[in-house]
Backbone:
């Protein structure tokens, strides 16, 4: 990480749950701290241009943007140390995108996951392949390449689904560099978010916890709502005394993702020895969820009520990001237009 530039993009996705917290929010913030400690540069941005592909209601979009910014601030992202900004505050990004378009084979887009998934969904519903697919979605990887290449990024931490997009950014940069015979653009690498635990949903369906499956424990809801979700976690009818393999107990699976290690061991032992019933362990999980989120919830509510402060933080981020993107854009324009 020494002297490396690490960049993460997040989409504004709405009310966060435990899966988002342990699978995305916490790892991104912790990684940011590590990068900064090692003397590197950490950029983190909200991908609002990407969001308009799907969300056309400005009121909903604005609310989601505000929420995602406040979530990251609440869990400890330091906007004075990390460069934290909104994509749409950096006009160099669409300019760079336009240049990249001319060097991107159309075939790359046909093969990109986000587009292919949308086509598959249309086919499954018996609709025409390109039904409701806009150019924003089709060319998603080029905008994402601009996001990355604009800052001479070394490393992009991603989940599995985004690896292909980083590879496309790298390929586009490589083609431009080889056309001009010099390193105009830095070739980025992805780093797979390791040990990313996939938190299962509360419905016992074996599906991951996900807003779209409606099987989540929300993190910023009030206690009654969190309790309702925890107590609705699917259990079976085995009595307390029956020794259980903790890995067969869904409450334990979710507990593992949020509780400290000693507490996790305690629950495992209690289940193995038949000393903990489902009511007990649900209460333990409820406490763990509240412990993991209480402090952040207060901060979240503070930031949500102080929009101006949050906007100023994002503007500060943009003012640090733009000079970097401007330099890269200049480098590109000079080469492309022979200036
Ligand atoms: P959802 O599936 O609820 O719509 P998103 O797709 O918006 O969540 O995911 C936002 C981030 O949270 C992604 O980085 C994703 O990998 C992570 N994430 C979502 N669900 C889980 C889960 N159940 N376990 C771990 N990480 C998750
Ligand atoms: N496509 C990413 C996602 O769906 C978000 C994103 C947009 C991104 N641009 C990026 C991530 C650049 C990393 C780098 O989660």
Residues:
């Amino acid at each position: 990480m020494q002297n490396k530039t690490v960049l993460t993009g997040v989409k504004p996705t709405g009310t966060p749950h435990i899966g988002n917290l342990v699978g995305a929010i916490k790892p991104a913030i912790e990684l940011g701290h590590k990068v900064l400690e090692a003397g590197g540069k950490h950029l983190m941005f909200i991908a609002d241009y990407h969001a308009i592909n799907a969300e056309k209601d400005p009121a909903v979009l604005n609310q989601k943007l505000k929420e995602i910014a406040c979530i990251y601030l609440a869990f400890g992202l330091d906007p004075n140390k990390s460069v934290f900004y909104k994509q749409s505050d950096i006009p160099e990004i669409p300019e760079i995108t336009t240049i990249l378009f001319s060097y991107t084979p159309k075939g790359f887009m046909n093969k990109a996951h986000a587009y292919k998934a949308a086509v598959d969904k249309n086919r499954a519903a018996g609709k025409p392949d390109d039904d409701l697919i806009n150019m924003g979605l089709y060319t998603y990887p080029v905008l994402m390449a601009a996001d990355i290449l604009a800052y001479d990024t070394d490393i992009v931490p991603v989940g599995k689904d985004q690896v292909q997009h980083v590879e496309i950014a790298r390929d586009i940069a490589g083609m431009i560099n080889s056309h001009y015979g010099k390193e105009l653009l830095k070739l980025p690498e992805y780093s797979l978010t390791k040990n990313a635990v996939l938190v299962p949903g509360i419905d016992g369906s074996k599906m991951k916890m996900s807003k779209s499956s409606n099987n989540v424990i929300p993190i910023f809801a009030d206690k009654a709502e969190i309790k309702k979700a925890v107590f609705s976690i699917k259990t079976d009818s085995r009595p307390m005394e029956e020794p259980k393999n903790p890995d067969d107990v869904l409450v334990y699976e979710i507990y593992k993702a949020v509780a400290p290690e000693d507490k996790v061991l305690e629950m495992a032992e209690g289940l193995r020895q038949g000393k903990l019933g489902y009511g007990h362990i649900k209460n333990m999980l409820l406490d763990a969820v509240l412990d993991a989120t209480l402090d952040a919830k207060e901060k979240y509510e503070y930031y949500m009520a102080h929009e101006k402060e949050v906007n100023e933080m994002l503007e500060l981020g943009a003012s640090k990001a733009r000079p970097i993107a401007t330099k890269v854009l200049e480098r590109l324009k000079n080469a492309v237009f022979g200036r």
The chain is about 55% helix and 5% strand. The longest strand covers residues 5-10.
